[in-house]
């Protein structure tokens, strides 16, 4: 009986200690995260702009019109460019589409697409020994609508030349596969760059960033 009481007492002490340890750990984690964020002064809009500008391509999701997977999410790789005529970042995401591919028919049926960019596209996470799924491997998810640019507009050819300057192979795509130039009309931006969940960024704040 005496041994049983001792064991019970030890168990209670262990439980109390464990409880206090877990509570303290959670509190410390919250403090560390808050302090780390303050020190970094994270600018989520700036991170979004940097990820977009550094990337040559994006993973693009659409609602499929292909009969084999109709109404399922479809993912594609799309080359992108956000440079203006002066070669500086504008934040405007321009890209080429063709109706021979997945995304072309999809947006014309249901004009809702999502672009994802990640720091791992430049291998910066791997080089820092971070797994691409870690929240500290920054990513931006930008949703919106496709805007097909009118080919006869005065700005079309200069914009196309700027795109081809970054993606020389595109000059061949236009001729052989009837690609057309588009840009993304941004509706929503999510940035995940640290623990604690994504941050929503206004499009106006995104475009206001100077790189």
Structure description:
With about 210 residues, the chain is of the alpha+beta class. Helix content is about 40%, strand content about 30%. The protein has helices spanning about 1-40, 45-55, 105-110, 125, 155-165, 170-175, 205-210; strands at about 55-65, 75-85, 90-95, 115-120, 140-150, 180-190, 200. It has a 6-stranded antiparallel beta barrel. The longest helix has about 40 residues, at about 1-40. The protein starts with a helix and ends with a helix.
Give me some keywords for this one:
disordered N terminus; alpha+beta; 6-stranded antiparallel beta barrel; 7 helices; 211 residues; 28% strand; 7 strands
**Uncertain segments:** 1-21
Number of E strands? 7
Shape: globular
Physical arrangement of strands within the biggest beta sheet: 1-2-3-6-5-4
Q: Report the radius of gyration as a whole number of Å.
A: 24 Å
Instruction: Tell me the span between the first and last alpha carbons.
Output: 74 Å
Alpha-beta content class: alpha+beta
> N-to-C SSE series?
HHEEEHEHEHHEEH
Major sheet attributes: 6 strands, antiparallel, barrel
**Count of DSSP H/I helices:** 7
Mean pLDDT: 87
Share of residues in strands: 25-35%
Percent in helix: 40-55%
Question: Quick recap of the structure?
Answer:
This protein is α+β, with helices and mostly antiparallel strands and 211 residues long. It contains 7 helices and 7 strands, in the order ααβββαβαβααββα. It has a 6-stranded antiparallel beta barrel with strand order 1-2-3-6-5-4.
């Amino acid at each position: 009986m005496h041994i049983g009481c001792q064991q019970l007492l030890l168990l209670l002490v262990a439980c109390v200690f464990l409880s206090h340890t877990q509570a303290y750990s959670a509190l410390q984690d919250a403090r560390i995260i808050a302090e780390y964020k303050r020190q970094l002064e994270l600018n989520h809009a700036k991170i979004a702009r940097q990820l977009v500008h550094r990337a040559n391509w994006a993973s693009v999701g659409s609602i499929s019109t292909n009969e084999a997977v109709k109404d399922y999410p479809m993912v594609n790789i799309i080359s992108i460019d956000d440079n203006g005529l002066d070669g500086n970042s504008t934040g405007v995401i321009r890209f080429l589409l063709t109706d021979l591919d997945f995304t072309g028919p999809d947006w014309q049926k249901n004009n809702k697409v999502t672009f994802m960019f990640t720091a791992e596209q430049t291998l910066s996470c791997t080089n820092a020994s971070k797994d691409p799924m870690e929240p500290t491997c920054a990513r931006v998810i930008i949703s919106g609508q496709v805007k097909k640019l009118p080919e006869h507009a005065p700005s079309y050819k200069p914009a196309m030349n700027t795109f081809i300057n970054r993606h020389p192979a595109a000059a061949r795509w236009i001729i052989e596969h009837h690609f057309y130039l588009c840009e993304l009309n941004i509706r929503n931006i999510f940035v995940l760059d640290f623990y604690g969940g994504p941050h929503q960024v206004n499009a106006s704040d995104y475009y206001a960033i100077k790189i």
